[in-house]
Structure prediction request, 779 residues.
Amino acid sequence: MKRLYTASALALAVLLAVGVFVPTSPAATVGPVTDPIGVVKVNRGQPITIAYWMVVAGPDASLGIDTRRGVEIAIADKGRVAGFPVRLIGEDTGCNAEGGVTAATKLAANKAIVAAIGSNCSSEAVPGAPILWKAGIVTVSPSNTAPRLTAPDRGPDYGGYLRTAHNDSVQGRVAAQFAYNKLGVRKAATIHDGSPYAEGLANVFADVFSRLAGAGSITAREAISPTDTDMRPVLSKIAAGNPQLIYYPIFIAAGGFVTRQAKEVSGLANVKLMGADGMFSPDFWKAAGDAAKGMYHTSPDLSAAALGPEYVKFLEKHQKRYNEKPLAPFHPHAYDAAMIIFAAIEKVGKKDSAGNLYIGRKALRDALFATKGYKGLTGTLTCNQYGDCADPKIAAYQTISADPAKWNPGTDPKKVFP
Amino acid sequence: MSVNTTILPRSTWWRRVSVVDLYLWAFRLAVILVIVWGLVGTVRAARYGGDVWVDFVIFGLSQGAIYALIALGYTMVYGILRMINFAHGDIFMVGAYTAYYAARALFQRGIFNRHPLFSLAVVLAVAMVVALVTALVVERVAYRPLRRAPRLVPLISAIGASFFIEYAVRGLYGSGFQAYPEFEIFKGEWTVFGIGILRTQAVVIVSALILMTALYLFVMRTKTGTAMRSVSEDIEVAALMGINVDRIIVITFAIGGAAAGAAGVLYALVFKQVHFFMGFYPGIKAFTAAVLGGIGNIPGALLGGIALGLIESVAPILVLDGLGIVAPYQLKDVTAFIMLVMVLIFRPSGILGERLASKKA
Prediction:
């Protein structure tokens, strides 16, 4: 009897682990909509629930707060979607894989969520997006840039993932071309932090740069972990190769340490420093202090010349609502992400005679992927079959004063390319 | 009642060797082989000049000095209470973070750079006092009621106290980081014997040495120090001898807390960023350092801290680079913790051994 009990308990545990009992969203017919993945019903008078999963706490909070504000302004601008108000809920993700998994799992359990906007860091999206898509929730990312998330071999787990942010294969190329053509650098070193974003971007830069400058032009390809504080040994090792530029496309905390300590390591006194959009924030200037003066960043081009008068209007709304300049470069991408989701909901949402709204999940996903020629803040968005919707415009900036109170992208840091 | 006292002759030692012993010896041998292989690889490649190695050693010394100061708190509390105070890393953080506000106030009034030594003294005092008070409160609330409990219970209480302090600071000061203002006089290098040392690092190493020497003299030469040593040897007999054990424990926590607060300011001097979670990794590393040097032993904490700092700084490039591992500094934390495992395998009592009577071990 006891043996039977143990055997059945073991079998139960195995079945639970395998996930036999987890209900996948079944093909459903709810109201006037039939959908193979599931249907969301929004009762008349209730709001449509959109969720965000962004980095809104911790050292990289400026990234998430900035994109969330973009979404909030989009909601305020749109007013009502298909006659329904929009409610924004969300989770903090912490810019690491564990946070991404936690946030995605919490959101996936909420069946009322129509679509999600996020994440910020590619390390969160790699495990998190499949969790959301398994629950049928499509997610549009405003700032993931790692190439692997929209690569042709990404797999069906990412079937519900799109992004309005640029792909880093573009950013890395622009960075390498800027360094080679404009700065005249012939030897460079890269540092990444093991995250999909940083590693992907550093690799793209290294590939393009070594094609431009020849073999051996990348003197060192180093890595640190994001929680490291002492970068001096890595920098000493890099100094031994005598590079002219160090490209470190990492996040704010680690980037701050590298910047400060690079100036202290002997042999790197005249080396140019270049970072990327992950640390394009006044918080980075706070972390790096005066050592950031004169350093370069690649980041989305947010000048009025590139984005047009609509963006200037957006900035005015932002200033009126939040009383400060945007903290990071992805707010227009978040605005566009919210807007294409609203457009897709209006396209596929069906109302019944009582006035309730029904949204098929697969239909919503297909409508988002079919976005073509959408005129958004960041340019003309056309989504390809792998989820890349962006119209990438990357610029290079140079830091002048490194005073967080004087943060004004375009002026200080000054746009130096194109 | 007869007792069998025959001792097996030497030639039958092989009968007493078990499979586990053989495995352990093989493992030790394998580890030594890997390390030697890495060393040979690095020496043969000879990619780095002598001054680079000296730089690594100095970075390791300054990092190790900070670990040593925090390890002092771990080792003293273990010596007296046989308990690992996991909240100690967060006491380090509380001191550093609160002193940031003092530093910022001084900076905004312009006193910071006009009277740098005075400002440094004020910031140090604030950090040490806050850390000391926090350590005492934690002792009173989390450890004293559990004095008679089985050993695992205060350990769990310590972990709980650690989380509480971290998230209380997060609630009070926010989840972002803050950056310390910079001392103008500590920017740049000093040249000692032809070697360039960063001024901040020199200050860290010297201050840490002074504090540790002061502590060592206190423990060895004063009456209270002797009382502390006797309590760590045998708590019940010390009480019988008329020592107020509660007072001694309070003094131990106070000194450990003050040392951690000072370590926090030195860390902030070198790294500038403070953050509510910054005590987590240094706390674990300092605990590793204390075990490495022999927990319960104050010179052991010093030695363990310096050794750990040096290993973290030098080992990736000395061993891992020679083994052909790409981007060895990503594995820096791995080398530190492997070091802990190695010590526990090769010499479980730590480098300087536990200074306890064997029946207490």
Observations:
- The longest strand of chain A covers residues 48-54.
